[in-house]
C-alpha cells in the first residue's frame, strides 16, 4: 500500500483515501472565447503523459476532501513530494530526485524487458 | 378510521437493538445525536466558535468539546459538530450557527449519520481490521479524529478515551460497518 503525504492533514495516509485528478498546472486561458480551435484542443484535450517526473492533481477525498498537487514518478509510482493547491509548480528536492532515479533503475520497464523483441 | 395518535410513527434508529463484540471489545450503537456539517472560512471561525460555545479546532485531526457539544476537524474549512439529543429535525446546532451572523454553511445531518461506540482493550485492533490509520496513542491520541475509510465505507473516527472510539457512519452503511466491526472484534479477542 502506498502512503501519500496530504499537505492539509500534514501526515502520510493510505492511498485508499485518495483519488487521482489529472495533470496539474493546466492553466485556463484568460479569454477562452478568443482562442483558436488548436489552442483549445491543446488546453482541453491534450496532456503530456510524461514518463518519469509528472505533476498531478490528487484529491484526499476520503480524508480532508481537499485537492492538492503532487510530483510523482510514473515509472516507479513514487511520490516525490506534495504541496497545496494554488501554489506554483515546486522544484523537486535534489535528494528525492536521486532516490527516484535509483529506484527507476531497479524497476523493470518495457524497454528493458521487451524493447528489443522483434 | 383508526385513531392517529401522536405516537403513530415511532422512529427506530438504524442500529436499534443490535449488540455485538467479544471478550475484548464492546460494540454498541450510540445515543441519538444532533449533527451538523459545518463549512466556514478561516476569518469567520471565531464568530462560529462563539455562537456554538466551543472552540472549533483549526489543527488537523483535532477535536474539542464544551457544553455538551463536540466539534471534529475533518478538513481545513470543514467540521462535524454533534451534540446529544436530536429527537427532532431543525436542530439547535443549526440555530446556534445561524445566530453567529457570519457567512457559513451548516447542514443538518443528524439523521444521515449514526454512530457506533467501540470500547475495550481490543478497540484499536478491531478498527484496524478495516482501517489503515495508525491508531497508536502517539499518532492518534485521545481527542484525535479523522475522516477515513473503514472497509469500503467512509467513517469519521474519534478517539474518546485510550480504549474507546466513536465511529460516525452514514446510516445506510451502518449495517455493513457494524458487521465488519463485529468481525474485527472477534479477531481482536483471539
TrEMBL record, chain A:
Keyword Oxidoreductase among UniProt keywords: yes
Pfam families documented for this protein: SoxD (PF04267)
Keyword Oxidoreductase applies: yes
Any one of the GO BP annotations: tetrahydrofolate metabolic process
Enzyme class: oxidoreductase
Known EC number: 1.5.3.1
Highest taxon, organism lineage: Bacteria
Keyword tags: Oxidoreductase
InterPro entries (alphabetical): SoxD, SoxD_sf
GO molecular function list: sarcosine oxidase activity
NCBIfam families on file: soxD
Name recorded for this polypeptide: Sarcosine oxidase subunit delta
UniProtKB/TrEMBL annotation, chain B:
GO process terms (BP): sarcosine catabolic process
EC numbers for this chain: 1.5.3.1
Signal peptide region: none
Protein name, UniProt field: Sarcosine oxidase subunit gamma
The UniProt record lists the keyword Transcription regulation: no
Stored InterPro entries: SoxG, SoxG_het, TrmE/GcvT-like
Domain of life: Bacteria
Segments traversing the membrane: none
Molecular function terms, GO-annotated: sarcosine oxidase activity
Main EC class the enzyme belongs to: oxidoreductase
Keywords linked to the UniProt accession: Oxidoreductase
Amino acid at each position: 500500500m502506498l502512503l501519500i503525504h496530504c499537505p492539509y492533514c500534514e501526515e502520510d495516509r493510505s492511498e485508499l483515501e485518495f483519488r487521482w485528478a489529472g495533470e496539474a498546472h493546466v492553466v485556463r486561458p484568460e479569454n477562452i472565447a478568443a482562442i483558436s480551435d488548436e489552442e483549445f484542443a491543446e488546453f482541453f484535450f491534450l496532456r503530456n503523459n510524461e514518463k518519469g517526473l509528472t505533476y498531478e492533481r490528487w484529491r484526499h477525498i476520503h480524508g480532508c476532501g481537499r485537492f492538492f498537487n503532487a510530483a510523482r514518478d510514473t515509472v516507479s509510482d513514487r511520490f516525490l513530494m506534495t504541496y497545496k493547491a494554488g501554489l506554483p509548480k515546486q522544484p523537486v528536492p535534489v535528494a528525492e530526485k536521486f532516490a527516484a532515479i535509483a529506484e527507476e533503475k531497479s524497476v523493470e520497464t518495457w524497454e528493458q524487458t521487451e524493447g528489443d523483441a522483434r | 378510521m383508526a385513531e392517529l395518535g401522536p405516537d403513530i410513527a415511532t422512529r427506530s434508529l438504524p442500529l436499534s437493538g443490535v449488540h455485538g463484540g467479544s471478550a475484548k471489545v464492546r460494540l454498541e450503537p450510540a445515543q441519538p445525536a444532533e449533527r451538523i456539517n459545518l463549512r466556514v472560512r478561516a476569518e469567520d471561525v471565531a464568530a462560529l466558535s462563539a455562537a456554538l460555545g466551543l472552540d472549533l479546532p483549526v489543527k488537523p485531526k483535532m477535536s474539542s468539546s464544551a457544553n455538551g457539544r463536540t466539534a471534529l476537524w475533518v478538513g481545513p474549512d470543514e467540521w462535524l459538530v454533534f451534540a446529544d439529543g436530536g429527537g427532532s429535525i431543525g436542530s439547535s446546532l443549526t440555530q446556534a450557527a445561524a445566530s453567529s451572523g457570519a457567512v457559513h454553511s451548516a447542514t443538518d445531518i443528524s439523521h444521515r449519520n449514526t454512530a457506533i461506540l467501540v470500547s475495550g482493550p481490543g478497540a484499536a485492533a478491531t478498527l484496524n481490521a478495516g482501517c489503515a490509520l495508525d491508531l497508536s496513542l502517539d499518532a492518534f491520541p485521545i481527542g484525535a479524529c479523522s475522516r477515513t475509510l473503514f472497509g469500503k465505507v467512509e467513517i469519521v473516527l474519534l478517539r474518546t478515551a485510550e480504549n474507546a472510539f466513536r465511529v460516525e457512519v452514514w446510516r445506510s452503511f451502518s449495517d455493513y460497518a457494524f458487521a465488519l466491526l463485529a468481525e474485527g472484534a472477534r479477531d481482536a479477542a483471539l
